[in-house]
Amino acid sequence: xxxxxxxxxxxxxxxxxxxxxxxxxxxxxxxxxxxxxxxxxxxxxxxxxxxxxxxxxxxxxxxxxxxxxxxxxxxxxxxxxxxxxxxxxxxxxxxxxxxxxxxxxxxxxxxxxxxxxxxxxxx
Length: 123
Known about the structure:
By secondary structure, the protein is an alpha+beta fold.
C-alpha cells in the first residue's frame, strides 16, 4: 500500500506544471520596501496556491506572484483583466535577491483603476 502511494504521488508530481525555483509562499522572501512595475502581460497562470504572471517591462521580463483565485475575485480582478496583451502597473514587493526579477503583487492598476489584493495590509 505504501509503495502504491509513493508511486501515485510521484506520478502526480511529475504531471504538475514546473514552478520556478524562486516560488515562495508568504512574504519572508521579499523586501519591505514598496516596489512598482509597469509593463505588458505576456503570460498568466491562475490558480492555487497563487497565480503567476510574466510581465514584459523595459527592464526585461519579471515573474509576478498574483493573488489566490478568491483574493483576485475579492479585489474585483477577472481573468480577462489579467491576460496576455494587457498593459498594467503592479505595486508590491520585490525579491530580496538583488538580481532576481520576481515580485509579489499587492495592488494592480489597470486602465487607471486600482485593485487591492490585500486591503488589510498597511499601505
